[in-house]
Every structure is written in C-alpha cells, then in structure tokens.
From TrEMBL:
It catalyses: 2 Fe(III)-[cytochrome b5] + NADH = 2 Fe(II)-[cytochrome b5] + NAD(+) + H(+). Pfam families: FAD_binding_6, NAD_binding_1. FAD binds at R101, P102, Y103, L118, K120, K126, S128, T169. This is NADH-cytochrome b5 reductase. It comes from Pseudopithomyces chartarum. Residues 47-153 form the FAD-binding FR-type domain.
Length: 291
C-alpha cells in the first residue's frame, strides 16, 4: 500500500529531477549485463527505472488488490533492505505528467523473480486507480528504491509494530524480515487496528508466523466497527490496549514502529507540544519510529 504523506517530498524530487538520468543509467547498465542468469539486485541506491510486467492480480477485499510483478530475470532479487519502499510511476489516461507514488512490497526481500504489492484503491487515488485497472502483462515503471529506517538485527530483544489500516505493509515487511532471518532473534509483537473485519489483511501470513515462531511472534487485532460475531478485540489502538499486550520500556530496551492514518499516528507519537501515548507509556523519542 502507499506510504503515508511524509515521503512525498522525496517522491517529487525523484520524479522531477531523476527521470532523464535514471533512464540513461538504466539503459547503460543493461548494455553491460554479462550474465543474465546470475542473481542480481534490481534496486540499489540510485535510480532503477525498470518496467516490470504484472504477473497476477488478486482482489483481496472490496478496495484492495494484491499485485505480483515479475522481475527482469527469474533469478533476480529486489535488492531492497528492510523498511524500504519502491517508487512507482505511471501516465494515467489523459495526463501529460506522470503520477509517482511509493509502495512497500510485501514479498520477501530476497525472493527470486518477483515483487508483490498490496494496493488499496482510494476514491481520488490516481495511481491506485491505475494499478487496480492493470491486467496481467501490463507493465509498471519502478523508478527507484526509497530506503527507510535501517533495521539492525538483535539491536533490541523485542520490537512492537503498530499498524492502522493500509499501514500494515511496512509493518509486515519488517516483521517478515526479522522472523525469516535465522540470525535475528528479536521477538515481534504486532498491534493491528482496522475499521472492519474485512480490512484485516495478510491474515494467512500472520497465522503462519504464529505457528512457526510461537515463542517470538504475537499479533493483536482490534476492530473499530466489528462484525456481530467477531472474535477479535473491539475498539481502537489505545493506551490501555498497549499497556496490556505489548512489552513496555520499563521491562527493558525496546523499539516501536508505527504506520497508520495521520490521526492514529498523531495520538500515538504526539507532537512538539504534547506527548503522545507512546511517550506516556515510557518510550523515549529515539525508540519511536514512523514510516
């Protein structure tokens, strides 16, 4: 799903200033490709500007699709680091200028040959509408990687990941990367707040994590407008909920990552003038990270 508002400055700069240079670099790099079958990263620190064909499109609920793109070669890997996004660009019908939006992949960062996105369609979302209209075989331009917080394995014994709605994608990417790394022993707790039961995404993957990493992984769902027969918690992500279900700073060194709607992030992270819920619970500012 698309990242929150903060990266748009980065997006605008990349889109406006790097197109020509990126296309040139991309073409030159393809000309010196010595071994097309050797595993190689598609995204690095510079522009990528690679068009990837849509391999499959799956409708997962009323407004969200799971889109799987093929990398140039079946042995290629994304080359992304944890908490990285990819900048996508398109020219929707009738527009002179490109639309650029960042999305966080949900596929494993070392998966060969493919890249998966989970994309929520917004009523006025030009890029999300375009992506939802794509058919297998259509191509999408991926301009560059956008690096986020660089996760250091075993830097803390446990980490709390809080997601709201569409903010689950970077949260899931980080959890998946930690758990799939045999060298990383960090315990992971996810708190996932959604509007309705139908908005709970990646539940099969979360269940697999619970089965495989019983002593290291826990997920807590909370639904603000639940179904009548729901077995999930009811309500929003509150101070009381966090006090009950997550490891708090008083129990030792930890970190917390947050990604969700602006109102949710504001209540959790706070502002310069007012402490948010996380600081009230004892987290230091350097322990709190947003995407």
């Amino acid at each position: 799903m698309a990242l929150p508002v903060r990266p748009r400055t980065i997006v605008a700069g990349l889109a406006a200033g790097s197109i020509g240079a990126g296309l040139l670099v991309s073409r030159m790099s393809r000309g010196v490709d010595a071994d097309a079958n050797a595993p190689k990263p598609v995204f690095g620190r510079g522009p990528a500007f690679v068009s990837l064909p849509l391999e499959s499109s799956e409708q997962v609920n009323h407004d969200t699709k799971r889109l799987r793109f093929s990398l140039p070669n079946s042995t290629d890997v994304s080359g992304l680091t944890l908490t990285s996004a990819v900048l996508t660009m398109s020219w929707p019908q009738g527009r002179w200028f490109p639309v650029a939006r960042p999305y966080t992949p949900i596929s494993e960062i070392n998966e060969n040959g493919a890249l998966e996105l989970l994309v929520k369609k917004y009523p006025d979302g030009k890029q999300s509408t375009h992506l939802h209209s794509m058919k297998p075989g259509d191509k999408l331009l991926f301009a560059a990687a956008i690096r986020g917080h660089q996760w250091v394995p075993n830097s803390v014994p446990n980490v709390t990941l809080i997601a709201g709605g569409a903010g689950i994608t970077p949260i899931f990417q980080l959890a998946q990367g930690i758990l799939q790394n045999p060298e990383d022993k960090t315990s992971v707790t996810i708190v996932y707040g959604v509007n309705t039961n139908d908005d709970c995404h990646l539940t099969k993957e979360m269940q697999r994590f619970e089965n495989e990493f019983k002593d290291r992984f826990k997920i807590v769902y909370t639904v603000s407008q639940p179904d009548e027969k729901t077995t999930l918690r009811k309500g929003r992500v509150t101070k009381e909920l966090l006090e009950e279900v997550v490891p708090l700073p008083k129990d030792g060194e930890t970190k917390v990552f947050v990604c969700g709607p602006p109102a949710m992030e504001s209540s959790l992270v706070g502002s310069r003038k007012e402490k948010g819920i996380l600081e009230q619970l004892g987290y230091r500012k350097d322990q709190i990270h947003t995407f």
